């Protein structure tokens, strides 16, 4: 666990389900989301590279299904596994447990319930549902991104949210954006830094073209210069992080 937080990798090929879980885990102080996988082989690679406390594993995945992932996890570095099942039978559940699943949960399951069971798998007591102290600043990051016009369905939205949270968590500037931030986000999402940079740039372009510039100036004040056009990646991330620091102070 990192800083008394449970580290998690989510493996689900359904983009909507994966994003819903990731967005929820990003708001919880009890967790740190290390990465997301869209296939069984990606899940194995992320577990090997990142050593999460808990792997949230969909049972139906391309390339390698949930059972295949369970059988190939390294016993010496095996995380707790919360298996999300599309269908259930006593025989199938027994098979999953025999191959190392820590807990089996039948879909549909709310992100809140998945998070509670993930804490159980990690050996921690579930947090009370009304515990507002478990909310992380990333919830505000998501709200701010929506206010600036970044569409939530774009991959760049996910990368931007991670970029702002990275700056907030590390308390630094963006001098190392290319050398540190892009690679860190790329590892989390099983991609390459160049794609992270392009996706963030595209998301900013889309947001700038559709945004209410009056609202942007109200949010960011004089840092928005209409004559200069859209901000660079680092400028946009810095504006968001500075705004959130001001809100928190």
Q: How do you describe this structure in short?
A:
By secondary structure, the protein is of the alpha/beta class. About 50% of the residues lie in helices and about 10% in strands.
Description:
The chain has 249 residues and is an alpha/beta fold. It has two domains: 6-133, Rossmann fold; 138-248, Winged helix-like DNA-binding domain superfamily/Winged helix DNA-binding domain (Arc Repressor Mutant, subunit A). It is built from eleven helices and five strands. The protein has helices spanning 15-26, 40-50, 66-72, 90-98, 111-121, 138-147, 155-170, 177-188, 193-210, 213-220, 233-248; strands spanning 6-11, 31-37, 54-58, 80-85, 103-106. A five-stranded parallel sheet has the order 2-1-3-4-5, sandwiched between helices. Helix 1 packs across helix 5 (111-121) and helix 8 (177-188) packs across helix 9. The radius of gyration is 19 Å and the shape is elongated.
